[in-house]
Every structure is written in C-alpha cells, then in structure tokens.
C-alpha cells in the first residue's frame, strides 16, 4: 500500500506548464507552472470564497426577505397574534353551532326522552281547618 500512496502523492506534486498562446502568431502570452495539488487547492479556495460571499450577500442584504419562512420580528409576532385570534374565532363558531343544533332539536322535537331537570320533592305541610 505504501508505494501506491507515494505514487499518487508524486502525481499530485508533478509540475506542469500551462501556456496561453496567440493563435495567429504563436506568441506566448502567459505561462503558468502548475501542479495538480495547486489546481485542487485553487479551485477549493475559489469554491469556498464563492459560497461565503453568497451567504454574506444573502444574510446582510434585503435578499433574505425573499427566502420562504424568513421574516421580520414584527411580522412573526403579527402572525402569532393572528393564529391566536383565528383559534378563538374557530372555538366561538363551534360553540354557536352546538347551540344552534340544540335549538333545532328542541324546535323539531328530536329531544331525548331524558329530562334535564331533577324533580323537586316538596314536603306537605299540614293545614288546619278551623
């Protein structure tokens, strides 16, 4: 395993020359001495910088408000107040529907045979007739 690892490390460090030439006159415009390792490091650095700049651009500019789920503190508190109000309105509506259903049952005569009052037992008082 050591020779393969050493061989791949040598390939990373082999130096190459990149020449940019003028196509018409074959004059060398720019020459670069590169290795595979320097190309990997350069591309990785460029990628990290682009990602960092993109994140910074989004987080420190008004672009962040276009991200779904992100909003200002005021809008979040307003949304929470609306949720609470909606829940209370739904509960009030449910109570009113139950009340209307009860009134409909009473008016149509579909009430259960069970009485909803307890009969009161009134003791008899003796009256004297004179």
Automatic annotation (TrEMBL):
<protein>
    <submittedName>
        <fullName>Uncharacterized protein</fullName>
    </submittedName>
</protein>
<keyword id="KW-0472">Membrane</keyword>
<keyword id="KW-0812">Transmembrane</keyword>
<keyword id="KW-1133">Transmembrane helix</keyword>
<feature type="transmembrane region" description="Helical">
    <location>
        <begin position="37"/>
        <end position="60"/>
    </location>
</feature>
């Amino acid at each position: 395993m050591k020779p393969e690892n050493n061989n791949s490390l040598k390939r990373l460090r082999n130096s190459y020359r990149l020449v940019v030439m003028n196509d018409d006159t074959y004059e060398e415009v720019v020459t670069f001495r590169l290795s595979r390792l320097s190309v990997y490091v350069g591309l990785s650095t460029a990628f990290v910088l682009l990602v960092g700049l993109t994140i910074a651009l989004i987080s420190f500019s008004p672009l962040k408000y276009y991200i779904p789920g992100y909003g200002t503190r005021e809008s979040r508190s307003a949304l929470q107040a609306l949720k609470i109000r909606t829940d209370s309105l739904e509960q009030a509506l449910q109570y009113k529907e139950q009340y209307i259903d009860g009134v409909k049952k009473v008016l149509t005569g579909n009430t259960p045979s069970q009485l909803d009052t307890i009969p009161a037992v009134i003791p008899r008082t003796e009256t004297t007739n004179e």
